[in-house]
Amino acid sequence: MKNDKIRIGILTVSDRASQGIYDDISGKAIEQTLAEYLTSPWEKVYRLIPDEQILIEQTLIELTDEMQCCLVVTTGGTGPAKRDVTPEATEAVCDRMMPGFGELMRTESLKYVPTAILSRQTAGLRGQRLIVNLPGKPSAIRQCLDAVFPAIPYCIDLMEGPYLEVNPEAIQVFRPKA
Ligand SMILES: Nc1ncnc2c1ncn2[C@@H]1O[C@H](COP(=O)(O)OP(=O)(O)OP(=O)(O)O)[C@@H](O)[C@H]1O
Ligand SMILES: Nc1nc2c(c(=O)[nH]1)N[C@H]1C(S)=C(S)[C@@H](COP(=O)(O)O)O[C@H]1N2
C-alpha cells in the first residue's frame, strides 16, 4: 500500500467488546484523544479482536507492514489474567522494545489507581513503526496518552516516519532538535 497519508492503527483487544457484549469505548477514546492532539491530517485504521495471541500478532503485522501505520495504539489485555497476552504479542512482533513507555504510563496511572502496577503494558518498534499498549479501562486511555504522547512525534521523527503536527493547546510535545 502506498504511504501517502499519516495512518494510525487503533487495536482494541477485548473478548467481550469483540463479541458485542459491550461497546468499544476504549478504542473510541483513543481515536478521540488523537483527534484532539493532532492537527496533521491522519487516517485511523481500526481493528477489534479477541484476546488471542496469534490474532493480535497477525493484526499488529497487518497494521504496521501492510497498512503502514506509523503508530499503533492498542488497548486491553495487558493485565495478569490468563487471557491477557497483548504485551507478549507486542514483544513477538517488535525488533526493539521501548521500556520507558510502560514505566512512565504505570507511574502516571498510579496517581489514579493503586492497581496500575497490574498492567504489563509496553511499547516497541517494528521496523520504523511504533506500537504502544494501553490498559483496557476507558479512563486509562487519556491518562496514559497524556503521559507518553509528548515523546511520540520525536520518536517517529527519529525513525524517519511522517512529521506529526499537534495542537499545543491539547498536548505539548517535545522535539529536542526543533
Ligand atoms: N474496549 C473496551 N470498551 C469499554 N470498556 C472496556 C473495554 N475494555 C475493557 N473495558 C472495561 O474495563 C474493564 C476491565 O478491562 P479488562 O481488559 O480487564 O476486561 P477483561 O475482564 O479482560 O474482559 P474483556 O477482554 O472481555 O474486555 C472491563 O470489565 C470493562 O468494564
Ligand atoms: N490509568 C489506569 N491504568 C490502569 C487501570 C486503570 O483503571 N487506569 N487499571 C489497572 C488494572 S485494574 C489492570 S488489571 C491492568 C490491566 O488492564 P487490562 O488487562 O485491561 O489491559 O491495568 C491497570 N492500569
TrEMBL record:
Domain MoaB/Mog positions: 9-155
Keyword terms, alphabetized: Molybdenum cofactor biosynthesis, Nucleotidyltransferase, Transferase
Pfam families: MoCF_biosynth
Reaction it catalyzes: molybdopterin + ATP + H(+) = adenylyl-molybdopterin + diphosphate
Enzyme's top EC category: transferase
Molecular function as annotated in GO: molybdopterin adenylyltransferase activity
PROSITE patterns to which the protein is assigned, alphabetical: MOCF_BIOSYNTHESIS_1
Entry EC no(s): 2.7.7.75
Pathway stated in the Swiss-Prot or TrEMBL entry: Cofactor biosynthesis; molybdopterin biosynthesis
Keyword Transferase: yes
Known role: Catalyzes the adenylation of molybdopterin as part of the biosynthesis of the molybdenum-cofactor.
Protein name: Molybdopterin adenylyltransferase
Organism from which the protein derives: Rheinheimera tilapiae
